[in-house]
Amino acid sequence: MAIIKATDVAYPTLQCPDLDIQEQFLIHFGMHTVSRTDDTLIMRGDGPQQFIEICKKGEKKFISTAFNAGSMDDLERLSQTDSFSDIEELNTPGGGYITRAQDPDGIGVEVVFGIEDREVDELPQPFPTNEGGQINRVNQLKRFNKGDTPRIIRFGHYGINSLDIEKSLEWYNEHLGIIATDILQPPSPPGEAPLTAGIFARLDKGSTPTDHHSIFWLNAHLVSESIPGLNHVSFEMLNIDDVFMGHELLKRKAKEYDYELEWGVGRHYQGSQIFDYWRSPFKQVHEHQTDGDYLDNTIPPQIVNPMSDGDPDYPEFGPSQWGAAISETFGNKEGT
Prior knowledge:
By secondary structure, the chain is an alpha+beta fold. The chain has a single domain, classed as 2,3-Dihydroxybiphenyl 1,2-Dioxygenase, domain 1. It is 16% helix and 34% strand. It contains five helices and 20 strands. The strands form three sheets. The chain has a ten-stranded mixed β-sheet with strand order 19-10-11-13-9-14-17-16-15-20.
């Protein structure tokens, strides 16, 4: 039985050698600066969260991801285990409390509670859509200014290149209640045990629907030369317009600022999100995504052959329903 059941992902913490460069990338990506010191950059989106990414100054590294606990009692319960630290007060915007641990790959896991949302006069709302013969927008013109910055509403999920995916899932399930959604197992030679290439896993919120995945593990032995670490961090956009506006802006800035399109735009199979992945100048992959699947805890794990979907003339690992094929460099050690 899980010690607690986390209620959401909160924010990632990365480490980068130059905060000026990282800040500029994240602004182009759609974030806004909350605070900046010599060694810490804090960025937010357009949603109510105080912040959605922290970057520390130093050698490139993925430090941790924070999850939200449902109560102070949950935080105390975790802090009393061998894995997690004593509770500390947060000195970041919104206050709150935190306990820290490391997962089986040595990646930081933080659990927080009590961070107050920021005051927002009016949260961004998507335009109603006129699709499938359903008319929802009348006498209301849908207009964006060319070159607008995309709007991010929240930190959505993250990916890890892991040395032992099953062990990691077991650890996250035990401590945070994370459950498997899709298990990627390509065909194995006769007589050999199945090889798990990846696992998409979600929060267990009972009958309350939650994102198809809050964590994605990819086998580090297959993609990053057995080096564990960051695969990507993903941010939910207001809608599809913001994904494409972000793609256009980053593409326009790519040469001048050393941004690199990693994969996109397309729509995933696992999770169904419309996606667009970009590498920062430090090669850490950030994703824009929108319109993903939501599941409750009644859906059992699905064993998926990642090579089986789509047109047999276009086989690819983790194929997209439409859009670009996955890049050959996706998840490589450059981004870890």
